Amino acid sequence: MTTDTAMEAKWNPAHNHNEQAFKTDSEGKFKVKISQYGKWYVRTIHMVPSANKELDYVSNWGTLTSEVR
Asked: Which residues, 6 or more positions from 51, have their beta carbon under 8 angstroms from its beta carbon?
C-alpha cells in the first residue's frame, strides 16, 4: 500500500456512526480502534496528480468490510 492514503473506518452505518479518519504511516500501515461489536468497514482513497494533461488526478478506491463478534 502506498503511504499517505486517506482512510476511514465506520461502525454499523445503519445505526450510530463511530467514524475514524486517518492516513497510513511511512510503511503504508494503519491502526483502527475497534470500539464496538458489529459490522465495520474501512474505506480507502488514494489520489495522485495525473500525468495525463486532460485529467487532474488519478484515484484508487477500496473497501474492506468485516464483522466483530
From this structure: none
How far is Cα 38 from Cα 18, in angstroms, rounded to an integer?
A: 11
Q: Grid cell 504511516 — which residue?
A: 25
The grid cell for 62 is 477500496
**For the whole model, what pTM was predicted?**
0.59
Neighbours of 24 (CB within 10 A): 17
pLDDT one-digit tens code per residue, 24-65:
888 878 887 777 788 888 888 888 899 999 999 999 998 888
Angstrom distances, CA of residue 26 to CA of 7, 35, 58: 14, 25, 21
Domain ranges of the chain: 6-68
| Side chain identity, residue 42 | V
23: cell is 492516513
